[in-house]
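Hey, can you fold this one?
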Amino acid sequence: MAIRVSAVQYHLHTISSFAEFAARCEHYIRTAGEYGAEFILFPEFLTTQLMSIGNEQGEALGIEDLPQFTERYREMFSGYARKYAVHIIGGTHVLRRNDKLYNVAHLFYPDGRIAEQAKLHITPAEVEGWNMGAGEGLEVFQTDKGTIAMLTCYDIEFPEIVRMARAKGADVIFCPSCTDDRHGFHRVRYTSHARAIENQVYVVLTGTVGSLPTVDLMRANFGQAAVITPNDIPFPPQGLLAEGEIGGDMIITADLDLELLYRVREHGSVTTWRDRRTDLYTDWI
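Sure. Predicted structure:
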C-alpha cells in the first residue's frame, strides 16, 4: 500500500480577514490535490497568522485571542477535507480548556470526523511567552490508508514518545513544526531522521516560513518541509524522499510505500525495532 503525502511550507504574512486565511489554505489544498495527495500537512502555529488581523485599534491580537477562531478553523478545514476528499493535518491551533491554553494538532478526515492531539512537550519560549500547557496523553489515529500519529515540533526531539507511537502501531509520524532560526530547525530535522531510523517509520515534517512583523514570537520563521525514511538500501541513501527549498512558499509531495517499510522491518540491513534490548531498558508495549 502506498500513501501520497504533501507537506506545505506555509508562508506567514500579515492578513486582514479570516476569509483571506481560508483562501490561502484552500490554495495549498487544491495545489496538493492536483498532485493526487491523500494527506496534506500544514505547519505548527498555522493560525497565528490570524493574530495579524488585529483589533479595532489596529493592534495585533494576542495568543489568548486565538481560541475565538476555533469554530471557524474547524469548520473550514473539515469542509475542505470533505470537498477535496483528503485527510488534512491542519497544523496546530491554540485551544482554551479550563482557563489554560494548549497547542493542538488537528486531523480532518474526508468523512467529516475531527481528531486532536495536544502537543506533549512545551518549549521554554511557549511557557514563558504564552503560558502554554502540555497535553496529557498520546493517541494514534486509524485511517483507511494506515495508522498515523501527530507529534508537534519539540515532541519529535524525545525518543520515548515516538517509541510509544510506534508501539501503538503508527507507521507514519506527521510532525507540524515552527522554528525561528537554524538552530531550532536543525534540532527538529536531525531528530526526525533519528526517530525514523530508530523506529523504522516515515516522518513527514514541515514548518512555517515568512514573517508576522506585528505578532510576538512569530517575527522570524526558518522552515523546510521533508519526507523522511529509514536509512536502508530500498530507500534513498540520505533517508529523504523529498524536501523543499529553505524559506520557500511551496509544497512537496511523495509516496510512502508501507509494504516496503514492513519488509525492511523484517529483512533490512538493520532491524532496529526488532533488535531493541528490552532486557536493558524500558520499552513501550
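The mean pLDDT is 96. Let me know if you want another pass with a different chain boundary.
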